Protein 1
Amino acid sequence: MSEPEFFGPDWAAAVRDALAAGPSEQARAGKLAMYWDFFEQVKAGYAASWALWCRDLPAGPAALYIQWGGGTVTDCRVTRSGDTGLGDTGLGDTGLGDTGPADQPAATYVLGMDYAGWQALHDGYDPQRTVMYRKILVEEGNILEFFKTIYFFTECLGVIGGVPAAFPALAVH
Amino acid sequence: MAERKSPTAVLHEGPRALSDQQVRDIEGAELKEVLDVDIDDVIEYVHKGLKSLPDYTTLYRKYLKQRWDVYDLDFTQDKIDWNEKMTEAERNSFLAIASGFHHGERQVEIELPVFMIGAGEEEKLHIAAQVEDEARHTVFFDRFYREVVGLQGDDIMDILDASFPWVAETFVGPFGLLAYQADEVRKNPYDERARVRYGTTYFLWIEGVLALSVMKVTLSYARWRGFLPAYYTGFTATCRDESRHVQGGMKYLQDAVRKDPTMTREIHETLRTILTLAGVASREVIYEPLGWTQDEVRMLMFQQLGRKLNDVGIRLPPDLQAMVGSVQPVLAGG
């Protein structure tokens, strides 16, 4: 079976299932129970949403919109920039504030990472360093609030990176 | 370097008084003389400076006198100590602690330049010096990991990649926060509230609490056992550099709060996020081979935080005080 297209609807569905299931036993094995207790506590009460953008996707800018609630993912889908009229300039440049894709509510946190960063994450690059090295950045949202649950976010980022995906080649300009 | 007092002795002795001569000895020591300086005296020296915070020009002039050449260090004996004298348990504990610093120095080096944009002219001199200090500290750890631990790589990032498996998952808490706050300052370099939040993470927490606490653990071990002379020399010189950074950072926060008392809220809100994260650990680090226990490291961190807050006149509301009690030792600094 071929892998779902990165930032395609099947990939978003697989991400939803993976996030709902949480990190694998292998990922959990090397870390203290205290750490996972914190993760589960955050997950149980988390009611925020993320819009995770990829600006230079070959098919055009798109966001993976993830809504959390009731201890699971309640909505997970890909929206294209065509939905929002944002063009390829990036949400942060539009002055639209924390407005999410037009067909869904505003995301609590809007983040962006370029295609190479997404590919690296998929190839196993560490989620912690993805954050620390600013490969992914918060473009809209309260940073201090976002970081109170950063361990939850980085573990989820690792889960997203682990979902199989086919990456189309970037066009050569 | 002779075997000396136990690593944790100063915890039970409490704060010590430094004579004027001791201060002059610390401030004026050449690199080769730093081997004979007691790390507890250098940490005390940090706080002595906080009582009457020096201005930025004074800190810059101190930098010009205290700057040391990281390539003057000779790690030959350290390599022998590492491979032939230290036990595997000691090496493992040491790496679990030092690796946070290896990455922490790199992080603070690259996150600092944006803070210069909105700073006063004299403060810019001090920050420029601090950036150079942090770059030198990054090279210090690069050399230590190559020449003593034996990691191999073509460039600095190769060595960082190789030591990263020893870094705890919770490292992203303070250092990821700093990266994102640096980006906030980059976008709005004159936003004083964003600068105060950034300064709280960098100067108060990472440098004032984490760095000074963790420095003491590995340095007091090296001094106690009489091992790793080049590491002791370079890292004690690093601690002396940090004294200028902490003093400059605390001056910045103190001035900001005096100018606008509502800035205290930014400090508290930043600490609320940091302390939320600091209550969680992802790995168990065994301190005993280095002469410490987890409770003693935690006590050390409490002491560092309490002294910084007292010295610069910042108090914590009751909810933050309660959070301090659950802090887990985080093995990183910068």
Note: Chain B touches chain A at residues 107, 164, 167, 169-173, 175-177, 179-181, 183-184, 197, 269-270, 272-273, 276-277, 280-284, 328 (CB under 8 Å).
Protein 2
Amino acid sequence: MEDINLGTYAVNTWCPGCGNFAILNAIKSVLKSLSEEGTPLENIVLVSGIGCHAKIADYINVNSFYSIHGRVVPAAEGIKIAKPDLKVIGFSGDGDSYGEGLEHLLFAAKRDMDITMIIHDNRVYGLTTGQYTPTSPLGYKGKSTPRGTAEHPINPLELMLSSGASFIARGTSHGIDLLKKIFKEAIMHKGFSIVDVLQVCVTYYNMYEYYDKRVYELEGHDPSDRAGALERIKEWDYNKDSKIALGVFYKEVKNG
Amino acid sequence: MKELSILIGGKAGFGIDKASSIIGDIMKNLGYYVYIYRDYPSLIRGGHTFSIIRISSQKIYSHRDQVDFVLALNQDTLNFHKHRLKKDSVVIYDSDSVKLDDMPGGMKQGIGIAIGKIIKDENASEIMRNTCIIGCFCKAAGIAWDVLEATFREDVARELELNLKIALSGYNGSKESMKIERLPEKGLPVITGNEAISRGLIKAGLNAYISYPMTPSSGILHYMASVAEKSSLKVIHPENEIAVILMALGFSYAGGKAAVGTSGGGFCLMTEGLSLAAMAELPVLIVMGQRPGPSTGLPTYTSQTELHFVLNAGQGEFSKFVAAPGDLEEAYYWSGIGLNMAWKYQIPAIILSDKTLAEGNYSFDIEAVKEVKDEQPLARVFPPAKGKAIKVNSYEHDENGITTEDPVITKAMQDKRLQKEKALSEELGNYETVKIYGNEGSRSAIVSWGSNKGVAREAAEKMGLKLIHVPVLWPFPLKKFQDAIKGVETLIVIENNATGQFVKLMQLFGLKADKKILKYDGRPFSVDELEQELKKL
């Protein structure tokens, strides 16, 4: 098999140890396997927003639309509508898609657009140097909330389930093998798929140890069971200390 | 010039809009040119809605203050429009709900008909009152029944036979007070500016129309959706205008020609996308229908207040194309040319419309429009392209689309993007970006842009003035405009705004207007009103 070089000449400017590297390496590996299985690389389009996550568009040598803050979803939808044969994969941050562009995410789920959204959910604004995001825990002390936030985080996966997303999963940047598996399944899924990646920001919110102690992979869970999916999604609310499930929570199998 | 004006009014929900279209088509079938001014409040039921249908043996684009017929489906119609009545005007009214007293000069030329009773007897729906009054009117105007019937068969889809029956009751209960003669010409189709814009875009090869409803541009969305039913055109109505423009840019990146439509408030939301279009060099056409602001303003009325907004919208400095069509023929033409220019230069193009043009009905003469082609861009590749990674970027980027902060590349890329406007400006030298009408030798000239073209043209022709109409606003056709104002001693700019936005645009190029006639009450100029204003100067 011919070795595929997916790199570019762009200099990688993520901090050493950044969780984004795991996402980059996992997606590169998935793209390679898709290519080997017969999906030409030119049929893949990556879309990113603005934030540390978004630089991924510069680092992978396939079609890309490096868009603007919060707007990954509609740009990705437009591409898919124009050329339904393209596989469109959106990369977005928690500030990007759970904050600035939340409405788009809900509507894409409602429409069940056949695109994949991978959320680099580090629960902090990295590129603007450390403010709270929609998934930061209550009391998070950031540069805009020096006394701690007074707001509870949202549970994005619960929102996605209620909005009609047909594929909902979670991974972490400390588990690249699981990420590869979930990414591939999400991309192959027909319909709207979202993967929330607990990606660690080593500079502003280093949660490696916290996550390592709490995460576990879903076992014996039936992803077609909506009620069961909701139960597992609600187990951890992005705030309290509890076990954090990883894997595919929900997958709706549709006719046609 | 043979001409006549008819006002029909009632509450919203009475079908005034439909009735005025039918009357317009009856007149078209009699060989007349038609213009319909529509005045309606921002509500669904109640309020006062009226249309003025003006017909003429010559092409017309605006309404007159006075009318020959008033068709009153409620008392308000009569009360609010008394001032429009002439000595020999005829009032046709629903005698079940309208009292004909207190008319100016003791005027009593009324034809009352018990419309409420007819509707009740026929067990017809309330909205068919409009059908009944059309019947009354046709008889009063001496229009043969077969013309009415043929028009109803063209225009009425639901309950045609019952509608005809109701119309006949109205016709038989009325009496002839004049005779509108049939002209030998075949009338032209009467359509809205929104439809002309849509058809121009489709002619230039539009693949997708994406829009969130907003007056006065929603008509484009509705027309496009009806076309999409029987063609490959994609029509999408997303969650908001931010999604609208981003979807259009995604669509454009993948190689499809996309247009979007909105009004000022929606355009506010689109500006970050507009700027992205410029940086990523993705073509898109935006129809921007103006209405009075600030903010929600008067949603269903007209203005020309967004000229400088569209010229300056979006962060950064970039090339753009802006046209403001003055009539249906220009709306069709410049929408098509605008889409082609967007693709040729990979820039955003804006069609600046307004409520008067967008929702007004005019006789449309497609034979008078120069050809619009579906031009295919030469230099673009789109995904999927074998072995290629096609990258677009909102950051400053190198020629491969990879982000850069390099000062040399930054300057080179900025120059490259701005160079497009120079090339576009040069190419536009071959187009009619400035038009002259009226008395070309007059030392007094009116300047118009957008929908004021028609009213200004009629006033100029009547008063022996020159009209300089400017359909392309950016890149500003400086050379042609300078040529047009040569020898003019008094330059009068007319605009539907309070600050003289075109005058300010002229000032950018060191040009001065001598007089301004500004109207900003949400209503378009009537011919009479503009003539009076011009006479005052």
Note: Chain B has 18 helices and 21 strands.
